[in-house]
Amino acid sequence: MFIIGSHLSTAKGFYNMGKTALEMGGNTFQFFTRNPRGGAAKAIDPEDARKLNELRIEHNFGPLLAHAPYTLNPASAKDNVREFAKMAMEDDLKRMEFFPGSLYNFHPGSHVGLGVDEGIKEIIKLLNEIMTEDQSTIVLLEAMSGKGTEIGRNFEELKQILDGVKLQEKIGVCIDTCHLWEAGYDIKDDLDGVLEEFDKVVGIEKIKAVHLNDSKNPIGAHKDRHEKIGEGHLGEETFRKIINHPSLKDLGFYLETPNEIEGYAKKIALLKTLRD
Ligand code: FE
Ligand code: FE
Ligand code: ZN
Predict the structure, then answer these.
(1) So what's the pLDDT on residue 254?
(2) Which among 254, 229, 70 is positioned nearest to 147, based on CA atoms?
(3) pLDDT confidence of 37, banded at 50, 70, 90?
(4) Residues near ligand 3 ion, CB 5 Å cutoff
(5) How far apart are the C-alpha atoms of 272 and 257, rounded to whole Å?
(6) Which residue range is the domain that position 54 belongs to?
(7) What is the number of the ligand closest to the CA of 254?
(8) Domain containing 146 — which CATH number?
(9) What residues does the ion ligand 2 have nearby, CB within 5 Å?
């Protein structure tokens, strides 16, 4: 099954997102758990959640992907910043149980001068404090482009974080095609080589989701500028290889650019033509 969807706005509720995903030709979607730039969360209406869950079963949805807000920084040297990240993520994980069996993706954070190793220690500590045996959600570290002091800019850093997490079966990685490329991984001309390296360093089974974005920049730019599928430096052919790769094809693919329904629907239709 080709699991495909895009990022959607939570403004009209969860059932509405499910309907929209279907109308766009998708069978899953991604959403922000709370205001991406602020951090405030709207209460989830249990009836709205129930209706979405019914729809998910009826239409055989792939796993929903929740995205933590960008403002969270679990790697910060500042106590209050880390405290906020912890509070928000802990609360997000509780709320995710309205949608059992989902994925929860977050940016590992920026060490802002603290140093990578110290930042990683803080991330691990936070994860071990908030993750629980009975959560049904799998938490995902997003692979980052390496902008500024971002942690998670290479496979070794992701591995270092993963190794510190106690609940191994509840943690994984979300790769982002734009981020990998801008981090310096040549997924355009050597996708097999990059995935082999991931397997060697981290273990291929740890990849649980894929963000599909093209990039406005050449390889290794470390700028994190998404482009619409096929319209950037990666190009359509790269996405054909990615969505059909034996190690990736059964995972969920989530589009994050262009950011409006009609554009997403067109790209989903395009990707379906590229799928074997
Ligand atoms: Fe992200
Ligand atoms: Fe992403
Ligand atoms: Zn990005």
Answers:
(1) 98
(2) 70
(3) confident
(4) 224
(5) 17
(6) 3-274
(7) 2
(8) 3.20.20.150
(9) 176, 211
